[in-house]
Amino acid sequence: MEMRELTFKYAKTFGLTANSACKAAMGILKSGGSALDAVEMAIIVMEDDEMTNAGYGSNLTIEGAVECDATIVDHHGRSGAAGAVSQVKNPISLARMLLETSAKPLTCHRVPPSFLVGEGATDFAYEQGLVILPPDGLISRFSKERWHRWLQDLEAAELVERKRDPSRFRMEEDRASFLRRPMLNRNPARLIDNTRLRPHLPSSPFTGVDLLNPLPRLQAPVGGQSIAPAPPAMASNHGHGMCPASGQPMDVAGGQSIAPAPEQGMAASANTHADGATFRANPTTAPCAPDTTSMHAHPDAADEDEDMISDTVGAIAVDCYGNIAAGSSSGGIGAKHRGRIGPAALVGIGTYVIPVDTSDPEQVSVASITSGTGEHIATTMAAQTSAARLYYCQKKRKDGTFENVSEDEAMNATIATEFMEHPGVKASPCGGAIGILTVKKTKDGIFFYFGHNSDSFALASMSSEDRKPLSVMSRNQGNSTIAQGGRAYRARR
Predict the structure, then answer these.
(1) pTM: predicted TM-score of the whole model, two decimal places
(2) Is 107 within the bounds of a domain?
(3) Site (Cleavage): which residue positions (predicted)?
(4) Model confidence over 422-459: pLDDT tens digits?
């Protein structure tokens, strides 16, 4: 699943990426692989595609480095996560390795780690034999161009501030020598060619930025989640799921993927039904192909480009044993501070799984992944909150009590009330954007639901009965509206 400000000309390309992730995950599920295997593979496919903001081609930090976040959660709710990790080709594989090693005891009663960040995470990946690349190995041509333009925007804005309040900048320069700086030989920005990417008119003496004909303002990525294909485990945006009763795997991709397990499966980019049920979504959900009508409706669309890449990819899968798993991966927001940890690395915030209660006759388990403004998602514990609301089919009233509702209503209320109306989000100077993909597995089948208040949400899914993945691009109508959809796969009796 990936939530992003996707431009029309890239929607089809991203849909193909999500479809590829679904197919890869479904192949694993059909061969009897676990939901964890499927989720990892789906996200690897998306990380290796430079069109997504994960792995190769991720957004760069202000210093020009790639620092990625990733989390994977199994059907027991156990997790492995890595944050602000550099040089690791596939951060999701590092998260998976941390999950597996955390179950192995260390000597002297030490507790094995399940979450590592920074250089320690990179060192751990190397020790475990994962692929480690040079500092610039994850930087693509497009991400480098975005970084250059972001710096030009930032420098132009700083020039304006210098003229407005020069005393503040003098104070900052005076204290600069006291601030800790990274060693030059460890600064990936030194590896980036500073050659001007395109000609400019007369420039500023401070930055070389063209002030007579400034570059178009870029919308830096919001730590959110984009929808892209993912392993079979979740029926919302990515992953695939499976219903043990039916024995069919399901895989949904779209930054995040949803998929059932190998008994019977389903994979979908947004909402589909493996047993013939119709794909349910609001009128704003559309196929991942360029829409000429929409292009005319948005005259600025032609001027948009890949700079709009901003969010997280994820996947949810359900295997033939009825086990559910989820994962997410992201390069974070563009021009972010070094060491910033986003929701994709945080359990309960970007990814969450509610395990099956052995005493539950319905055998319900839920997985949820999120994308959007990372800091707001962290404030609201979005993944955990959405999973709990759909698990219990409840929405929170203004007086703090809960009301029993349908899953669709629970999803809508989670975004409208518990996210958009949260005091921390309302008081923030930054707008709150979110996309949520949730898969609910019961003895009756696998159901996935998604909702978002962002402009667009890309999804793909696939079941074991589908000949090919189904991908969609969900768009809302603006003005803080919420777009929703879903897919259902009922177990065979």
Answers:
(1) 0.77
(2) no
(3) 311-312
(4) 999 999 988 889 999 999 999 999 998 999 998 888 88
